Amino acid sequence: MQMQVDIFDRYGRLVYKSTDFNKPWNGRSSNGNKPMPSGTYYRIVKGKDLLGVSLVQEGSVTLLR
Fold it and tell me: pTM for the full model?
């Protein structure tokens, strides 16, 4: 099953993107690996199940430091 996780800041900028589920988001950006500030981030998880049906899950993540 191929999955992709995208995390956006409050301005809609992509701050993290991954297809590796063995490496969860640690509150750092994908580019530059900078720690992100506390706040609410929005996530979109996309993929396909074993039958090829597309799956999309959206929600928010609150990062506290």
Answer: 0.83
Count each helix (H run) and each strand (E run) in the chain, helices first.
0, 4
> pLDDT by residue for the chain (65 residues), tens digit each?
678 999 999 999 999 999 987 778 899 998 878 899 999 999 999 998 888 899 999 999 999 98
In 3D space, the residue among 62, 61, 54 whose CA is nearest the CA of residue 3 turns out to be 54
Cα Rg of the chain (Å, integer)? 12
Q: Sign (positive/negative) of CA torsion 15, 19, 25, 29?
A: negative
